[in-house]
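Internal tracking record. Fields below are filled automatically when a chain is submitted to the structure queue. Please do not edit lines marked as system-generated. If the sequence contains nonstandard residues, flag them in the REMARKS field before resubmitting.
Queue: standard
Priority: normal
Entity type: single polypeptide chain
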Amino acid sequence: MSETQAETRQWNRRDFPEAAHEVMQNAQTRKNVRHATNVIQAKRNAVVAELPDWEDLREAGAQVKAHVLRHLDHYLMQFEENCIHAGGHVHWASDAAEANRIILGLVQRHRAKEVIKIKTMTSEEVGLNAHLEANGVRPIETDLAELIIQMGKDRPSHFVAPALHVNRHQVREMFQREMELPDLGDQPEDLATAARSYLREKFLRVKVAISGGNFLIADSGGICITESEGNGRMCLTLPDVLISIVGIEKVIPSYRDLDIFLQTLPRSATGERMNPYNSRKS
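SYSTEM-GENERATED OUTPUT FOLLOWS
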């Protein structure tokens, strides 16, 4: 077993309360989490208050999801049929091990030694990065927060804001070390510029990308990805091969249903009225 695999298994064995208690003994971490949580919650409250029909939208979304769960087999088969018709391929995995085997096989089929990744919590759940690394494939996270977590050899602390516990001074130290930029400043624009330059080379060179998916659209066979940095769109459009790992619960009946979720998701997730980038791949 590789060191990376051992670390992943150790994290998976630990209960979250135990791990959280240990990490939160750090005063700087507590300060980082408190600040980030307050900012995000205040933004969410403000944009939610703008919609007089907010609770109606939430209920409509809940009804769509409940309907899908009652007819899950139908919508999954419809998605598969339409995805194949649009030129895609669908692979079914019964567990994490099978998902990892399928993805590694696809990467190896294309003889790739590196892959670029859009943030995907599903890949985090199945331990995909560790599996790829153990088999000689380097995964490169392109979401800024995920890149910070990866460079810090850390674990995500939140599924929307995975680097919520890290401040910009700590990010600067990581970038100075990992990107070999000893004179890098600590202002947000300095860090963003460094990340953009680092990732642009990867976008233009790496030929295989791995994504998650916010929604699987049954009636078109498309995959919808929402994000705020543009890295997702780069991963969706530039590489020769796109592999998406998506839970079956993400399927929705039709493109029309996005009208509900593209209003509720950004407000609750990041406190924004809309996601800057909403991309559909089919």
